[in-house]
Design a protein that fits this description.
The protein is mostly helical. The protein folds into 2 domains: 84 residues, no CATH class; 64 residues, no CATH class. Helix content is 52%, strand content 0%. The longest helix is centred in the first third of the chain and has 18 residues. The protein is elongated and about 55 Å long. Keywords: Signal.
């Protein structure tokens, strides 16, 4: 009976960690003192682009935050994760995917210097990354490529002259 209660508690804890968002502040405060620590580039943007897709990192960050666990678990919660979270691929804006997915839609505009624009404007790309991901799914390009072209959602908003 005790094993069943313990298993239920562990499952509830895992589910609560998996349904939560990755906590950028907790990552920095917990992991910044560990060997090999690297800050996330635009952590909040990464989290927004990967809602529901960071369960492994969320779990390991939670374990890392417990006394004595940071050295072992912070590398698993990192942006370039190691160990069990290395296969958890984070989404980011992909210029090639934008061109191949959206070039056939009405109003398509190629972005000259797309990679430079993305690199120079890491904050705020989550919305465009989301729309591009949905646009890449069959039948969604016509609806979801235009937001990546508008000033309110996409790259044009972040382009510098």
């Amino acid at each position: 009976m005790a094993q069943q209660v313990l298993a239920t508690l562990i499952l509830a804890l895992c589910l609560s960690w998996a349904s939560a968002a990755f906590n950028c502040s907790l990552y920095a405060s917990t992991c910044s003192g560990t060997t090999g620590y690297t800050a996330y580039s635009s952590c909040s943007d990464t989290v927004a682009a990967n809602l529901g897709g960071m369960a492994c990192r969320i779990y390991h960050l939670g374990v890392a935050a417990m006394a004595g666990n940071a050295t072992e678990h912070c590398p698993h919660a990192a942006q370039d994760a190691t160990g069990p979270c290395a296969t958890e691929v984070l989404k980011s804006f992909d210029c090639s995917l934008y061109a191949s997915t959206c070039s056939g839609t009405t109003g398509y505009t190629a972005y000259s210097g797309c990679s430079d624009t993305v690199a120079a404007n890491p904050l705020g790309m989550a919305c465009c990354t989301y729309h591009l991901g949905v646009a890449a799914m069959a039948g969604n390009a016509a609806e979801h490529c235009p937001p990546c072209r508008t000033r309110s959602h996409g790259l044009l908003r972040y382009r510098s002259s």
